[in-house]
Please model this.
Amino acid sequence: AFDVLIVGGGPAGAAAAVYAARKGIRTGVAAERFGGQVNDTLAIENYISVLETDGPKFAMALESHVKHYGVDIMNLQRADKLIPASEPGGLIEVQLANGGVLKSKTVILSTGARWRNVNVPGEQEYKNKGVAYCPHCDGPLFKGKRVAVIGGGNSGVEAAIDLAGIVAHVTLLEFGEQLRADAVLVKKLESLPNVTIHTNAQTTEFTGEGGKLNGLNYTDRATGEAKRLELEGVFVQIGLVPNTEWLKGTVELSKFGEIIVNAKGETSVPGVFAAGDATTVPYKQIVIAAGDGAKAALSAFDHLIRH
Ligand code: FAD
Model:
């Protein structure tokens, strides 16, 4: 059995593994895809002390740091079920999709999240080539350019306000009849000179040329008219879904499916901690997930020395 078993091998899980292993305790990481979302990222320019790197390079660096401490990495393993300890201080079980069962005194959940896609032609093709999901990450790459934001909820409207300060022009597209963001955000957005808002707008296709996005097509749902926007970038803001479906009914989740954690990264289940994008911790970023992973590992260690 492990002392600390980490489920998820993104920045949160990797940081947790390094912190746990450096305490000299038996540490394992089970991950569906080691590296996590970072694998899908092109440029990373906001990981403090690293001016610029790219996703695959960063993922490799995470893995070699974790391996340096002899952590047992179980890659390509999906966890299906968490079974809390039957008695205080007992072993917690994690069942894998392949039928295997891992046992540990403490567990750190760091299964991350995934951005909801619009699922229209061109989206996969132009991902990272104009189609983006994270304004904090990729906003500066579109300085002085024309972008659209898809989604008129809080995150879409916040993204549009944020981007309006960086890019030349922002078009916000909302599928419904009106924006769904808080009134104060909508008012702020409407006050900006370089923002256009289209409601009843159903995106139908992302288009590009020479391997780069050059615009999008949408239908005005009120009139049925086909419309087109010429753009360099699109930010899709229709939701970030935590990878926590497998924890429903075991660990307390928020209404958005995020694992509810306290300031120490403790969940509702004794001995089970959580870190990163899968949790209620706000702002989903690499540096935040990594810091969170370190915190969860220290909390797990603190738990172990008391049991
Ligand atoms: P993740 O990176 O999502 O890792 C989750 C891990 O859990 C993975 O190993 C996954 O395979 C595994 N997993 C999931 N479910 C299971 C399961 N059931 N069983 C076992 N394993 C499971 N942030 C920045 O700070 N800067 C950027 O420039 C930046 N750019 C981004 C660009 C893109 C395209 C995307 C998608 C995200 C970007 N982000 C960026 C956000 C950043 O990648 C995330 O905030 C960060 O990766 C979260 O780390 P995490 O460890 O919590 O989760």
